[in-house]
Amino acid sequence: MKLVISSSELLKGIMTVAKAIPSKSALPILENFLFVLKGNTLEITASDSELTMKTSIEVENAEEEGQIAIPAKHLMDLLKELPDQPLSIKTINDTSFEFSWASGASTLPYFPAGDYPPFTDMEESAVTLEFPAQSLIEGISSTIYATADDEIRPTMNGIYFDIDTESTTLVASDAHKLVCYTTKDVKASEKASFILHKKPAAILRSIIGKNAENVDIAFDSKNAMFRFDNTVVVCRLVIGKYPRYRDVIPQNNSNIMKIDRQQLLNSVRRVSVCANKGSNHIKFNLSPNSLEITAQDLGFSLAAYEKVPCEYEGDDLSIGFKSTFLVEILGNIDCTEIVLKFADGTRPAVIVPSEEEEESEKICGILMPSIA
Questions:
Q1: Spatial separation of the C-alpha atoms in residues 110 and 329, rounded to whole Å
Q2: Does 13 have pLDDT greater than 90?
């Protein structure tokens, strides 16, 4: 292998896929980047066996095609210290390559590309769809915080993609809160679904650029592939049946409160300072056009209350919540005014942007009540 490439472009490329490099692996080869030079295109691959990422870069000068596995940490550390300039990469024998720049050079070991795990191919039965890039980022951002860390129920540790003929809904839940994000921009000829673990979901959110238009998604019974710009991400799916989330969403909620989202969020944060640190319990006391938020910790003689202006129609109602969960939902819904709907004080509350908001039909949060 012999090529010349821009140091900044190479650094950008390896940092795109570096999140797939494991800190320690039972397979030492996975602690390397796989470089494959074909024509004037350099493909860089990183993998931890569960997640594989590949990106392509156009090189300035390719003299000799080839493929080698390069130690990831050494390469990243070296590139971060170099200013932008042309770099020359060439193999000098069967085990070493030279990495040279304007004022110096470094000799590093490389390993046979044949030892690197092969790139995962999708099954012929794979479902394909096109997802607007910014909608995918928004959907992941709107739901990922609601995923669980549950060893017994691994399906709760990811985002459920519920794909229908009219729309697609991303769902996440930890059994205490549930969040749905729905977009009508993505639909399929027939119903399909998959569960994306939160680790690759977070990586996708961080590497899909603002200029990306669409993400091409293909998934089968075991894996999903995301393709955008010059990058491909393949990850193992969470296997299992996701709970019937629509059955959890309460209907016929006759008690409705409309309130400024930021004002409610700030009030909950203030009052919850005096809540019991174990339960984080706060209580809403609702009456026509009136909301009082209270909290207390009898063990430390702490108590607080705050009255918040709102529009409320319904019966007098008292309902408790875990403040940390409520803060998460309110902090992750991007709107000015929010609507909370209650059936009574014992059933989950529905939290949605008000009908005047652009996001009103996209986001829906469900929060279970708590007991002090």
A1: 48
A2: yes
Q: Rounded CA gap, 155 and 242, in Å?
A: 6
pLDDT level of residue 210 (50, 70, 90 thresholds): confident
User: Whole-model pTM above 0.90?
Assistant: yes
Q: How many whole angstroms separate alpha carbon 140 and alpha carbon 131?
A: 12
| Amino acid type, 14 | I
Kindly compute the dihedral angle of the four CA atoms of residues 166, 172, 176, 177, in this order, to the nearest 10 degrees: -60
| Mean pLDDT in residue range 19-27 | 88
β strands within 92-209, DSSP E: 96-101, 104-109, 111-112, 127-132, 158-163, 168-173, 177-183, 192-197
**Residue bearing the bigger pLDDT, 120 or 129:** 129
Please give the average per-residue pLDDT across 282-297, as a whole number.
96
CB 351 within 8 A of CB 339: yes
Q: How far apart are CA 270 and CA 19, in angstroms?
A: 37
**Are 114 and 66 a contacting pair, CB within 8 Å?**
no
Q: For residues 301 and 274, is the Cβ–Cβ distance under 8 A?
A: no
CB 64 within 8 A of CB 30: no
- pLDDT for 125: 87
Residues with Cβ within 8 Å of 110's Cβ and at least 6 positions away in sequence, in order, are 32, 68, 69, 70, 71, 91, 95, 96, 97
Strand partners, 62: 3
Beta strands across the sheet bearing 86-91: 61-64, 2-6, 86-91, 96-101, 104-109
Mean pLDDT score of the chain: 94
User: How far apart (Å, rounded) are the C-alpha atoms in residues 291 and 366?
Assistant: 19
pLDDT per position as a tens digit, 153-203: 999 999 999 999 999 999 999 999 999 999 999 988 899 999 999 999 999
Buried/exposed code over 16-36 (b: 16+ C-beta within 10 A; e: otherwise): bbbbbbbeeeeeebbbbbbbb
| Token code pair at residue 161 | 């993609």
pLDDT given at position 160: 98
Rg, the chain, Cα only: 26
Q: Return d(Cα 24, Cα 304) in angstroms, integer.
A: 48
